[in-house]
Amino acid sequence: MLTSLIVVPAVAALIVALVPSRRSELHLPLGFGLSVIPLAIAGVLFFEFETGSAAMQFTEHVPWYEPWGIAWSLGVDGISLGMIVLTTILIPISLAASTHIDQRVKEFVVFTLLLEAGLIGTFLATDLFLFFVFFEAVLVPMYFIIGIWGSERRIYAAVKFFLYTAFGSAFMLAAIIALGLIHASQTGAPSFELADLMSLEFSGSQERWLFAAFAIAFAIKVPLFPVHTWLPDAHVEAPTAGSVLLAGVMLKLGTYGLLRFNLGLFPQASVDFIPLMATLAVIGIVYGAIVAIVQPDLKKLVAYSSVSHLGFIVLGTFALTSAGLQGAVIQNINHGLTTGALFLLVGMLYERRHTKKIAEFGGLAKVMPIFAGVFLFTTFASIGLPGLNGFVGEFLVLIGTYPTLQVFAIIAASGVIFAAVYLLWAYERVFTGEPDREENKVLSDLSGREIAVLAPLVVLMVVLGLYPKILLDRTAASTEAVLDRIEAVTDYEVPEPGRLADVFVVAESEEGE
Amino acid sequence: MMTLAQLGSDVSWMAIAPELVLALGAALVLLIDVQFKPKTGGSLAWTTGFVLAAAFGFALAQWLRLADIPISERFPFGRMVIVDGTGLLARFVLLVVTGLAVATGWRLFERLGRRRAEALALILLSAAGFQLMAVSVHLVMMFMGLEVGSIALYVLAGITRERADSDEAAMKYFLLGSVASAVFIYGVALTFAGTGSLNILEQNQFLTQNILLAPGVLLVGLALCIIGLTFKVSAAPFHAWAPDVYQGAPAGLVGYMAAAAKVGAFIALWRLVDLGFPTMRASWAPVVAGIAALSMVVGAVLAAVQSDVRRMLAYSGVAHAGFILTGLLSGIDGIRGVWFYLAVYTLQLVGAFGVVAAVTGASTSRSAISDFAGLGRRQPVLAVVFSTLLLGMAGLPLTSGFIAKFGVFQDAWQAGFEWLVIVAVLASVIAFFFYLRVIVTMFMEEPSGDDHASVGVVARWVLALVAIVTVVLGILPAPLLELAGDAVAR
Fold it and tell me: B425, A170: Cβ pair inside 8 Å?
């Protein structure tokens, strides 16, 4: 079942590649149609998923080359489930939103489908070698998507994107090799299986070095301050679909990796590194937000808002409380939906006006009311208006962070206010008032196709905002297991009321009174 | 336990049958040319192909019955040659690489006219030389193989003698190569002075049985031998010849020249340090590690600033030499990784130069990166093949290059050279930069100037095959790794 999630997009890419280039009108519909299959599989996965279990489910294990201990080893748990569903949702949407691509359509569809296979593989891999293979391999399709279909400085942005990430993963590769050999020295045979590696015992400095090597790779991917500089370039130059997938899914490889591998494999070092990681996260939240305020370019504004939002996810992760981890996992999904929608909207605006400069617009609400409405709605979701999805994630992160990292939580809360500032101010400048430029007066409102592209995202924003239980039920057991292990292995104790159990006990006693 | 002296000193033609076939084949090619004066190269191509296939067949036959060959028959010709899995694997690689080089560079042979027979004969001879080098356990034998292989390469570098830069490349290669050979043979003489033997195995035996109080002469000798061999694989700081020679020599032959010398010299180097001087590991390992680190850094950094694809590939070859040396440090366990790396890298190298020859002409000496602009549109198949090969050399996952790098890094880490692995992974990142630059040029820039790219039908299929193998081995490396593992066991 899990293998099919990786193989189907790859085969779909092959099928599209076999359609002759001159039939360019076929590639996009065909790719879209085929990309619905993984979505259906992911849907089945989501509802078949057994809630309340922290174990990897639907596991598959095929040895790859036994003397090295590497294996094709897949599994899904509460932490990765949501990301897989999100990926399979965003791929068809990105393809459907890419009708403006008029050259080399076939290659574009092929690369997007290959990207899907790689991204899903990264989330599913439970063998570190396999994880690394996918983690690196996804760079290639994204590199081409930015480099071929991007705007003016696309080559610079593509190369920068590739090199930054490759630099980070170089350290991770060394650490993965070290882990396999440490396993060999402690048990007699090398293994890269996550579950096997969790039973290793490290010396203090060894664990901190390994943690650092993984953390560098993921910090660049997230990106955390000060290694975030590739992100605005990549986002601004990438085509709409590239931005959506970059922000929606690829950045999450970093936050997912921190949660899955850094917290999972190196509990003691994770505890030791809390101050550093939380500080970087908070710097990212505030810095990203402040820089976003002053951006003259709408797409760059959304890009910097990502730096800020992802800071929340990292902060929640290293708060090491139930609510913090849950919030981080949920916020991964939420940010994918809202920022994905924002990039789609900016892309649609760019298709009409061929500029992303905020100063060029004004009064668009009069000309394109539906567009303005969807934009405002997404803005609210992104800011974290209660009732919409962004609220759930950021609120969980903040209440999760408060018991353990009080000061950080207070500073981070300012990020929510800044988000309101930069997004609403941008909305004001673009949409309110009278349209004063001639070009802006003739813009057409959203077409049926564009509404269809945005509708699923908007619906999910509401559903997850009103009924986050559907997701929280599935993530709870896995995030609790991460904390259980940290408490078991280290001296660290989650202060009350940081654990889910504490909260429920409190609630019950209140009812009793 | 038999002593070395008791082990076979008899003649075993079967042990060197692949080399004999190649040498006879070279003579046959020349005879056919003299006797029939063929106008086209068809008959010579078939003859060459047949000779290579026959040599491969002999090597394969030996491989299949290798387990049955008793230890007493493993060291024929007075313990000059060894019959073992590693030597046979080196032959497999060399023969495949030779075949690929002839197939992908055939345009050049067509253009050479009547000189093509000379060129083909020289290729066969040099392959025989490097194969002998890879199966020798006697330093004079090793030197013989080295010289037979190298001298043929000097001539091949200048085979398009109407072009001045080709002559220049040949002259440079000859002069610097001769110095390296001289350094090597001087080192051989000093190790003889130190141990009283020229046989690697006997030298090892002597060193395990005796403690040298003043090993100075021996150490100098070993150092000179290592320098001579690292020159042949173009490791830094002995790499200066490589870019000029790669650029000046005809494009259709450069891939072969680079690949063949690397296979022969690396296997020989492994035999020398790990079979002959494992007792002095503490002395040579830091030197080899230093050369490896320097090669990776110098190669990667200088490759990043080149504007000519061939010079870029030459400097990247310096870096690759460093990666392979990294694997050599882990002794007998490392040979699996080293062989796998050699096999996939030489394959990619020959393939890459095949593309360069197709794009910029088989006999030219300029291959500016800008010539590749827009190749993705002009020749999509070639561009995809070249990209796959470049990504393979860069060591991107899902290509054989990644498995190869992972293997040698893992071995080196296990051998205690963690710092070298860190240097290596960082050098790989720089490598991504310059390989990507060519891919950027091919796919993201508009075509400039005229389209000279032309590639024969055979070459096109062979190149596609090499690219497919690069990906398949990246996904399913187990069969080839097991083969290499078997070789160590046998």
Answer: yes
